[in-house]
Amino acid sequence: xxxxxxxxxxxxxxxxxxxxxxxxxxxxxxxxxxxxxxxxxxxxxxxxxxxxxxxxxxxxxxxxxxxxxxxxxxxxxxxxxxxxxxxxxxxxxxxxxxxxxxxxxxxxxxxxxxxxxxxxxxxxxxxxxxxxxxxxxxxxxxxxxxxxxxxxxxxxxxxxxxxxxxxxxxxxxxxxx
Length: 177
Ligand SMILES: [Zn+2]
What we know:
Radius of gyration: 20 Å
Low-confidence stretches: none
Number of strands: 8
Shape: elongated
Distance between the termini: 18 Å
Order of helices and strands: EHEEEEEEHEHHH
Bound molecules: zinc ion
Number of helices: 5
Largest sheet: 6 strands, antiparallel
Mean pLDDT: 83
């Protein structure tokens, strides 16, 4: 169970900004068949209660680990995302229409313990690159490259699939539960 962010100071003192430093631990994620692991996620910034809504801003950083798309050696990617999210009260959430809004726009808080594990996961996944490379100039393994040229020659016009599509599946799956 993830440790929530304690926002009780903001609830007691509306309109006042408070600094926070928060750590989340993300489980390894299967993204389009690639396993991606993460260092602990650091979130730092400020939160404040404004007119009944909790404003959470800051910066999320972690390092994602996967295999290089070209040579399969370990590859790292530094995730560094600024964010500004507004959490509304659950009762306000129910009043909203069922339109297809951005899932990040429908965050809610309920009491002094703010769960930000889903937010951390979403922000992290959205920041991941199309593919991991051990270094920009990686030439890959010669035999792998020639193999790919032969088998994927007819697919080269297709756009690369973005990790976001995997995220979308993830969110849909959670909504069904
Ligand atoms: Zn490589």
